[in-house]
Design a protein that fits this description.
This protein has about 950 residues and is mainly alpha-helical. It is built from 50 helices and six strands. The chain has a six-stranded mixed sheet, covered by helices on one side. Helix 1 packs antiparallel against helix 5 and helix 21 packs antiparallel against helix 22. The longest helix has 18 residues. It is elongated and about 130 Å long.
């Protein structure tokens, strides 16, 4: 006790030694504060202090000091209270318990916990009021740990709690999410008989609810004998904060039914619940309650209404309510701006941000975070930089939300180096920041960097979530790194994310793009909740792997399950139809697109152009292209590429020039299509012009694909020396596409020297490909070097290289019919071969002579002729003639280049049967009509 008394004297003397603050200057001083003051006070605001300002100061009677301190407590003004404290000590009134408790309460409320704690420690016998004031101050200001420690100390000293102490302690437990201690306090509440007190009971309801024990919370609520509006508010505000908004609304209606009148806090919580549910109808009803009960001028309710209307997308209503606010504060502005961002109305958000600045309201970190999102969405990188400058000028330190907003803004504006700099300067990089920078690298095509950051993040101990895994898998899919894909899959299983829909769909997509269809299919079939995205990923995987028929089957399965389609799955399905040349099924998908209103979607429109072009109907492709509302580079490239493949070179160049006139800059894919158009049409001069001016006109350096097109073009035109000169001048090593072009040109012009050189390079680059051996053998055969043909065949056998069989297919009545050379497995084989025999006789009469020199089998001429008659593409055409209506075009696709004999035969057949025959091979489209081909025999 003596020590406590001496300490008290020391504290009083130290306080008295301070110069007594002038009443006109203390409000602007910070030397008496342990934390920053919230507001500035003027002595004129405190007329009750006039007694202490008299020159001949005399002690006020003891009862007057508590009265003055009570007013300081009510207004939370610490400086006047400290002045009064000085006088209390000076006149020897420091031991007055009432004044002491009021000072503890004041200091605790104003976050001056050092002074408050000192007074408690130096009080001879701190009572329940002292402890309760200290604990309440800690709890109200978010210092849960300190509040709990003070409660334990009080409890150990034998001071019993009351109905004022328990709510503060329970609030501290709620803040710390310490349910175990909360249960212990609950036990003390029951023992001491305070469980029937409404405030204590409400605090118990809140702690159980906020710790996730809604069952216990609801039981405690039901046990409250007389539930007021405060009790109801406590319960359904917890439901709202825990995203159980539907249950909160039900509780609100139950409260109304019980006869309890809601107050402004009830209605604000309900507005937040409606915002969470995105239920504008219910929100309007609550708005009606506000007006009816006279709370429509309440600033909290107004802000909640703005937030609700903005979040449900009713921006006109949000603006109406917002404009009714006399003086919108930062919360009001943030609510309406954030609502715009949520629904991607970025320009409107920036307009409101400008209005806020002009009104004199200064943005906070939350406002700047929203504004940065708007800059990300609009691509206004300069404005984003200005906002970054504002963040720096605020000198508020690193804010994680703003930092992530900056990373996202820079990354989405192709400034990934700036994004990385912001990330590197962050003192504490949390999971969201890591996800943002990984996503930024992935979005900017820096997939290797994105994947490399993942193990670094893991080593830092940050952890990862489904967003991390999905983003990393997206980059893995682009890189097609099979082993890494399997490792991330294993990690997702180990960490328990294998059942997460986002991760499952990303795994299906990654495995599909890595060509691991077996693994993709297994994950798809084992998934418990297969949604539209999963079907889209799987259909895309089949389409990209050339298994269009499986993709179509999966689409039908999706429809059977009642899953609604979207433009993306239609786009994937159209790609599957394009790979199969399934024209009729593609038209059916087109009908679905029209039915569901997807024609305005750019992905669906582009896929339709591509599908019709690849199914041989360039006229349909052109009609769809003309109806795409906003044609981007993909639309133009698809149309130019389609025209090029169909041999309409001059038309393709016309469309290309039209694209340039519309101000759409080409990309490298577009220029490949332009060179292909020149190639298929034999436009050597035009091709040279575009190739040489790529850098000057469009800012691109020619890539392997561009060189391959040029070399193929020169080779087909018979300029083999010029083609080889270009190969030698390439700034990088020629790849297989380039040497393949040289080999093809050598075969066309029977140039053994260049053919041998190209074949030797291809044996090294692609030893497993049989096409190289076949083309080289054809070159030898064309010049009569049959010994060399035999050597090539032996080399194939010794190297275990198997010739890829020619496969052709045709779509009839929504079914794909597949044929190989000499195929007799089809149900209508007899009719097919009978039709071929009939065509053979008619063709010979018309002057057709089988080109047996291109058949490398070492057999008699009659056998070679028979073998040529039974090529897969001839079988497909014969089936088309007997299975489709007279006059209908016949569309056939082949997996290899169409052979010279079949090309010649189809010119005869199309004239004999008066039908158009459209053959798509690996190189281009051939439209056979009236005895000629659209390629002009230049392929």
């Amino acid at each position: 006790m003596k020590l406590r008394y001496l300490n008290s004297l020391h504290f009083q003397k130290s306080l008295l030694r301070r110069p007594c603050p002038d009443i006109n200057s203390f409000a602007f001083s910070s030397q008496y504060f342990q934390t920053s003051a919230e507001s500035i006070h003027d002595s004129r605001s405190y007329p009750f202090l006039s007694l202490t300002q008299e020159p001949s100061l005399t002690p006020i009677s003891v009862p007057d000091y508590p009265k003055l301190l009570s007013k300081c407590n009510a207004t939370k003004t610490p400086s006047p209270g400290m002045q009064i404290h000085c006088h209390i000590i000076k006149f020897g009134l420091a031991n007055d318990p009432k004044s002491g408790n009021l000072l503890i309460n004041l200091y605790a409320k104003c976050r001056l916990f050092g002074y408050a704690r000192k007074l408690v420690d130096e009080s001879p016998e701190p009572d329940l009021v002292s402890w309760s004031a200290l604990i309440s101050g800690y709890a109200q200001n978010g210092f849960g740990k300190e509040a709990i420690l003070a409660f334990r100390e009080m409890h150990l000293l034998g001071v019993k709690s009351n109905e004022f102490t328990f709510p503060s302690v329970l609030k501290a437990c709620t803040f710390k999410k310490d349910l175990e201690l909360g249960r212990q306090v609950h036990g003390v509440v029951v023992v001491t008989g305070y469980e029937s007190d409404e405030y204590v009971a409400n605090s118990l309801v809140v702690i159980y609810a906020k710790c996730g024990e809604f069952g216990d919370s609801r039981r405690l609520f039901e046990d409250i004998p007389e539930r007021s509006v405060v009790s109801w508010n406590a319960l359904f505000s917890c439901y709202v904060q825990s995203d159980y908004c539907g249950e909160a609304v039900e509780l609100f209606h139950a409260m109304i039914s019980s006869g309890i009148r809601p107050n402004e806090f009830s209605l604000s919580s309900m507005i937040n619940a409606c915002a969470g549910l995105e239920d504008s109808g219910q929100g309007r009803k609550i708005h009606g309650f506000l007006i009816k009960l006279g709370f429509d001028s309440d600033p909290f309710s107004k802000n909640a209404l703005v937030d609700m209307y903005a979040k449900v997308g009713n921006f006109e209503d949000a603006i109406v309510v917002f404009e009714e606010i006399a003086k919108p504060d930062i919360v009001s502005w943030n609510a309406v701006i954030a609502g715009c961002i949520l629904h991607e109305n970025f320009h409107w958000a920036l307009e409101l941000f400008g209005q806020m600045r002009r009104s004199g309201t200064h943005p906070n970190m939350f406002t700047l975070s929203s504004a940065l999102k708007a800059c990300s969405g609009t691509g206004l990188k300069e404005l984003g930089r200005q906002l970054h400058c504002n963040v720096i000028k605020l000198n508020a330190g690193s804010d994680p939300f703003v930092d992530v907003g900056l990373i996202d803004m820079y990354a989405k504006n192709d400034l990934i180096n700036d994004a990385r700099m912001v990330f590197n300067l962050m003192p504490d990089k949390d999971l969201i920041a890591w996800n943002a920078v990984i996503s930024g690298h992935s979005q900017n095509g820096e997939d290797m960097e994105a994947v490399s950051l993942f193990p670094l993040m893991y080593k830092e101990g940050v952890g990862f979530n489904q967003t991390t895994l999905s983003t990393v898998l997206k980059s893995i899919a682009s890189l097609q790194t099979n082993d890494v894909c399997k490792q991330v899959h294993a990690l997702s299983v180990k960490s328990g994310f294998e059942s997460d829909n986002y991760v499952v769909n990303s795994l299906i997509d990654a495995y599909g793009k890595c060509g691991l269809l077996k693994e993709a299919t297994r994950i798809f079939r084992e998934s418990l909740n297969v949604d539209l995205v999963a079907f889209t990923c799987m259909i895309t995987a089949y389409a990209q792997s050339g298994q269009g028929e499986e993709a179509l089957k999966l689409y039908l399965e999706m429809l059977d399950r009642g899953i609604e389609q979207d433009p993306y799955v239609c786009s994937s399905l159209l790609n599957a139809c394009a790979s199969l040349s399934a024209y009729e099924q593609g038209k059916q998908v087109h009908v679905h697109i029209l039915k569901f209103g997807f024609m305005s979607d750019i992905f669906a429109g582009n896929s339709l152009v591509n599908m019709y072009a690849k199914c041989g109907s360039i006229d349909d492709a052109d009609r769809v292209f003309s109806k795409i509302p906003e044609r981007g580079i993909v639309s133009w490239s698809a149309m130019i590429g389609g025209l090029a493949q169909h041999g309409h070179g001059k038309e393709a160049l016309r469309v290309f020039n039209q694209m340039l006139k519309y101000g759409v800059p080409p990309n490298q894919i577009t220029l490949v299509s332009v060179l292909c158009a020149c190639n298929h049409a034999g436009l050597v001069t035009e091709a040279k012009k575009y190739f040489r001016s790529m850098r000057e006109l469009f800012g691109f350096e020619p890539m392997q694909e561009h060189y391959a097109c040029m070399i193929d073009l020169l080779g087909r035109a018979g300029r083999l020396d010029e083609a080889m000169e270009l190969v030698n001048k390439m700034p990088f090593q020629a790849d297989a596409s380039v040497w393949g072009a040289v080999l093809g040109a050598a075969r066309t012009h029977k140039n053994v020297e260049y053919g041998q050189r190209a074949a030797e390079m291809l044996f090294t680059l692609e030893p497993e490909k049989s096409g190289t051996h076949i083309l080289l053998a054809n070159i030898y055969a064309s010049v009569g070097k049959w010994d060399n043909v035999a050597k090539v065949r032996r080399l194939m056998k010794d190297s275990n290289v198997k010739k890829e069989p020619g496969v052709s297919w045709i779509e009839v009545k929504d079914k794909i019919h597949v044929f190989i050379v000499g195929d007799k497995s089809h149900a209508r084989s007899e009719e097919i071969y009978a039709k071929l025999d009939e065509l053979s006789d008619r063709m010979k009469k018309a002057g057709y002579v089988p080109m047996v020199e291109f058949d490398l089998h070492d057999v008699e001429r009659s056998e070679k002729e028979k073998h040529l008659y039974h090529h897969s593409e001839k079988l497909a055409v014969a089936f088309g003639l007997i299975a489709t209506p007279p006059g209908a075009p016949i569309r056939v696709k082949k997996n290899l280049r169409v052979c010279v004999d079949c090309h010649t035969a189809f010119k005869f057949i199309c004239k004999i049967v008066s039908r158009e025959i459209i053959v798509r091979d690996t190189n281009r489209y051939h439209h056979f009509k009236d005895g000629s081909c659209s390629c002009g025999d230049y392929w």
